[in-house]
Structures are given as structure tokens and as C-alpha cells.
Amino acid sequence: MAHSMVVQQGYRTSWTDVEALKQLFELFDKAALKEMLLERCTQAPGALTPLAYYMARKDGSYKKADIIEVLTSYSSGEELEMINGEGDLPLHVVSAIHLHCSKHG
Predict the structure, then answer these.
(1) Three state DSSP letters for 18-35
(2) Which one of 5, 49, 67, 104 is most buried, by most CB atoms within 10 A?
(3) pLDDT tens digits for 31-89?
């Protein structure tokens, strides 16, 4: 469920309204939301937590630090140490995208 709150319409549209995302998260029990933020989806590259799902967007939306801040403020932080289907941590994903962008852009 948290994946759908973060990236909407089948992986096409990222959440951009920070306050609305906070209000949506506030509707859930805090413990239940922490568990939802650890769930994984099968979207490529697989095994993505909501944070990793958001960061996997190729349109650069992962650069919106305030959305990432909201996601991590409602979580336990465990998702930062969870690898995706390619064996990468969220930090690896950001580093790889940043390196790719600096070489090509």
C-alpha cells in the first residue's frame, strides 16, 4: 500500500506534495506504517521498499530530498540497509544515478 502512496499510477507519477504525503501518512497507525514502509514490491529491479521504489524512478524525482525525508521520518530506518533485487542499497542507487548523470549531463 505504501508503494502506491509514494509512486502513483503504475510507476509513472511520483508524489511531489510533501504536506499531502504527511497528511496521508498521519491517517495510519504509526506501527503499521513503519511495517508498510518495509514491505517490498516486485517492480523491476525487484524487492523494492517504498523508499527504493521512489528512488528507482528514472525521471530524477529521487532528487526531491523532502519526499525522502518524509519517508525516512516515518520509518524505522531499516529500509536503508535493505538491498533491492540487484543487490544494491538505496545509497548505491543514488550514487550510481549521480555518477551516470555527471558523465552524461
Answers:
(1) HHHHHHHHHCCCHHHHHH
(2) 49
(3) 999 999 999 998 888 899 998 888 877 665 556 788 889 999 999 999 999 999 999 98
Query: What nine digits make up the cell of 10?
Result: 503504475
pTM of the model as a whole: 0.80
Long-range contacts of 34-40, Cβ-Cβ distance < 8 Å, separation of 24 or more: 34/74, 34/75, 34/76, 36/1, 36/2, 37/2, 37/71, 37/74, 37/75, 37/76, 37/79, 38/75, 38/76, 38/78, 38/79, 38/82, 39/1, 39/2, 39/3, 40/82
Q: Domain boundaries in the chain?
A: 2-104
Neighbours of 38 (CB within 10 A): 15
CB 24 within 8 A of CB 74: no
Contact 62, 68 (CB under 8 A): yes
User: Position of cell 517492480?
Assistant: 43
Residues in the chain, how many?
105
